[in-house]
Amino acid sequence: MPVIITIDGPAAAGKSTIAKLLAQKLSFHYLDTGALYRAITLKAVQNKIRFSNKRSIAQLVSNSVIKFIYTCGEAIDSDYHQVHPAPNRRRIKTAKVQILLDGKDVSKKIRGPRLTAYVSKISSSPLVRKTMVKLQRKLVAGKNIVCEGRDMGSVVFPQAKIKFYLDASIKERAQRRYQESLLLFPRKHLTYNQILKEISIRDYRDTHRKIAPLVKPHNSFYIDTTNLEVSQVLKTMIKIVNDKLDKK
Length: 248
Hints:
three-stranded antiparallel β-sheet; globular; alpha/beta; single chain; 8 strands; 9 helices; about 45% helix
C-alpha cells in the first residue's frame, strides 16, 4: 500500500527544503502544495481574474495542468538561510524541482515577492480549496509520496502514515524568506521588515480561516527548526520514518 508522508507548518518553516530532501532520501515522489496555490495565483493574475471571483478561480484549477519535474541535482547549504556559503561549508545535494503550469516552467515566477502577497487571498476561499484538494488527491494516487503544505495532515491526507509539523520563530522564518528573496530576486527583493509583516499577516490568516486552518495535525511529530540546520532536521525525520515503517 502506498505510503503518504505529510509535512505541515507555517510559512518559511523549512517545509519545501526538507520535503525535497526527504523524498529524495526515501526515493519517494514529492508534492509542494504551496507551489500549486502559487501557480494558480499566477494564472489568475495573468488572466486578470479578480481574486473575489472565486468561481472563476476554481475553474482555473480544474482547467490547469500542473506538473512537478525533477531535474539535475543542486547543492544547498546546510544552513537554511546561507546565501553565499564559504567554500568549505558543508553542502547537501538535493533534487531540483521544476513546476510546469500548462507546459511552461514557472518555477521562478511563482516565488516572486509580489505574488506571495496574493496567495492567501485565493487559498482562503472554501470553493478554491475544495477544488484544490481534489487535484492534490488525484496527483498522489498510487504513489509513495512526501506532501508539504498547511493542511496536508489535517485535511487533505488525514490517513497519512506519517505526519510532521515543522515550526520556527517568526523572526527566523522572516530571515529565511528574506535570504531566499535575495537569492532569487537580487534587484527586486523586499526588505526584511516587509517580509516579517507579510509572514505575520499570513500566519494570522492561515490560523484563523474557517476552512482548513493551519493546525498541528493529530498524531504528527512536532519539530522546531529555529536553531537546527537542514541536516539535523532531516536526520531526525529519517529516523522517525524508518522507525514507523519498520513497524508496518
